[in-house]
Specification:
By secondary structure, this protein is an alpha/beta fold. The chain has 23 helices and 20 strands. The chain folds into three domains: 175 residues, Rossmann fold, CATH 3.40.50; 152 residues, TPP-binding domain (Rossmann fold, 3-Layer(aba) Sandwich); 184 residues, Thiamin diphosphate (ThDP)-binding fold, Pyr/PP domains (Rossmann fold), CATH 3.40.50.970. The strands form four sheets. The protein has a six-stranded parallel beta sheet with strand order 3-2-4-5-7-6, sandwiched between helices. The protein has a six-stranded parallel beta sheet with strand order 11-10-9-12-13-14. A six-stranded parallel beta sheet has the order 16-15-17-18-20-19, with helices on both faces. It is globular.
Length: 547
């Protein structure tokens, strides 16, 4: 049934129809009619006002990654939108369904270079470089259709961000509109013939391996069952962590995975770019790769697989579970073999004990369903290799973007989206300052979460590279020492300190029970260089990397 609405009201009504209950935002004059509609729709939909546009976008990103569901932010055009592009590019890299609702100058002025407030050349063009779908709402009746289409794009196939812009005068216009049903994903039918081929390849394999990425996060049950059926190790790095419970001996890190790679004959790659294996470890004629991905373009981006299947990971793997028993050879348990390899890898990584000890302290206190937000820090780099992850969507990483400073705001968004579980973010002293202002948001909206702030009063990674490369000087790596305790307390959050892993455990016990955001500052000196292990060379003898 149609109803007369402004464009802003039609857009908000469509957000609500698609299950959105929170919009992370920073308002401004070009978006006033959108915010009028948000105000009128409370408490069905709630606006969380951040201190910076990038904070709003990263909070939406954290919410989307922690749930796998679309999350929304709203900002003004021009500089406001541009402040969010780091988060949009990270959402694109991490395959996260984030919707940007962006204002625009008056419709008649767009593209005319009149020098209006917040005007930039081709804002929509910028949006399109960072999203799966972007469009302009040009009239009131378009708002429900284009917002619904944005959701359909985000939840169909490979999840990625979307963006919509709307001119300030168009937002205020009214017309009769009808809010359509919630968007429904377009999902390809399972190719049972291809699944049968995959079952035969895997069933005949002597040394199968499963490699999972972010596209497998919704297929944890199926991956676990297949791993047990094949007795195949499951390798994950960053985006795929948590798909298989780390306590399962078949769950392996990159160190173990590389050792096994040399003898692997059939690879089942699920929702992963497979970039490390194809471009660094190499493949040869004996390597057969079966790829399952929601994105058809991903299947042969670097090298054509033996078999590629386009589809939803859970649906395809479910069919594979049905087909595999009739082809699967008799499998002996590989538990003892895997435990031995884990022990060997632990010895190889033991030189990273300073980082590992702090990660062990965090894991000991963070509940198994707690969300751990990775950050490019000395602990973060090592954590991708050694931090035990037990459940899907509990290890959030910026993926290949390596976005410094995203963690504090992303953790806030994750906590808003999943208020029932603890959320902890890593941060270095440099990265922390990128979004420290959002502690004020957390205090204002009573969002309790924990930041473990590793403070070495500088950027540890850059000066190490400068030192280690002969002839290179150190430049732009020193940092003025700040009193983080006063800074955190100034925002109204709880400030704590820890000087050892044992002290960190004690502080975490308090912080995880606190009803306010908490920052635990850990003073750190130089730590061992993880990169020679994190970027290993070689993989298969005689293999040729591709790409």
């Amino acid at each position: 049934m149609s109803q007369r609405m402004t464009t802003g009201e039609a857009a908000v009504g469509t957000l609500i129809r698609n299950g959105v209950s929170t919009v992370f935002c920073l308002p401004g004059v070009q978006s006033d009619y959108l915010f009028d509609a948000l105000h009128a729709a409370e408490p069905i939909i709630h606006a969380i006002h951040t201190r910076h546009e990038q904070g709003a976008a990263y909070m939406a990103l954290g919410a989307a990654m922690a749930t796998g569901k679309p999350a929304v932010y709203a900002v003004v055009p021009g500089p406001g939108f541009l402040n969010t592009t780091g988060a949009l590019s990270t959402a694109y890299a991490a395959n996260a369904p984030v919707l940007a609702m962006v204002g625009q100058i008056p419709a008649a002025a767009i593209g005319r270079s009149l020098g209006m407030a917040n005007e930039i050349p081709d804002q929509l063009g910028v949006m399109r470089t960072l999203t799966k779908y972007a469009d302009r709402i040009r009239a009131t009746h378009e708002a429900p259709l284009k917002v619904t289409e944005a959701f359909r794009q985000m939840i169909s196939g490979r999840s990625r961000p979307a963006a919509l812009e709307c001119a300030v005068d168009v937002l205020s216009r009214g017309a009769p509109v009808e809010i359509p049903a919630a968007a429904v994903p377009i999902t390809p039918l399972v190719d049972l013939d291809a699944v049968a081929q995959a079952a035969k390849l895997l069933g005949d394999a002597l040394h199968p391996m499963i490699i999972v990425g972010g596209g497998a996060q919704n297929a944890s049950f199926e991956v676990t069952a297949l791993a047990e059926m094949l007795q195949a190790p499951v390798l994950a790095h960053r985006m795929g962590l948590g798909v298989l419970d780390r306590r399962n001996p078949l769950c392996v890190n990159m160190v173990v995975g590389q050792k096994l790679w040399e003898h692997t004959d059939v690879v089942l790659a699920v929702g992963t770019r497979l970039s490390t294996q194809l471009t660094q470890w190499g493949v040869d004629h004996a390597t057969k790769i079966v790829r399952i991905d929601a994105d058809a373009e991903e299947l042969d981006r670097i090298a054509a697989p033996e078999l590629g299947i386009v589809g939803d990971a859970a649906a395809v793997l479910g069919a594979l579970l049905d087909a595999l028993p009739s082809h699967n050879r008799r499998r002996e348990s590989r538990r003892d073999e895997m435990l031995g390899l884990h022990a060997e890898a632990a010895r190889q990584l033991s030189f990273l004990r300073p980082q590992i000890a702090y990660l062990e302290a965090i894991r000991a206190e963070l509940p198994e369903d707690g969300v751990f937000v990775d950050e490019p820090t000395q602990l973060g780099y090592v954590g991708r290799m050694t931090f035990p992850v037990y459940r899907p969507r509990t290890f959030l990483s910026p993926g290949y973007q390596g976005t410094l400073g995203w963690g504090v705001a992303a953790a806030l968004g994750a906590k808003v989206a999943r208020p029932e579980i603890p959320v902890l973010a890593l941060a270095g002293d440099s990265g922390f300052l990128c979004n420290a202002q959002e502690l004020a948001t957390a205090v204002q909206y009573r969002i309790p979460f924990v930041v473990v702030l590793l403070n070495d009063n500088g950027q540890a990674n850059a000066p190490r590279i400068h030192r280690d490369r002969s002839g290179r000087r150190q430049i732009a790596t020193d940092a003025h020492k700040l009193d983080f305790q006063k800074l955190v307390e100034g925002y109204g959050a709880l400030a704590m300190k820890a000087a050892s892993p044992e002290e960190l455990r004690g502080a975490l016990r308090t912080a995880l029970k606190a009803e306010v955001p908490t920052v635990i500052e850990v003073s750190a000196g130089p730590m061992p260089d993880p990169w020679r292990t994190l970027r290993p060379a070689g993989g298969r003898r005689g293999a040729v990397p591709r790409g």
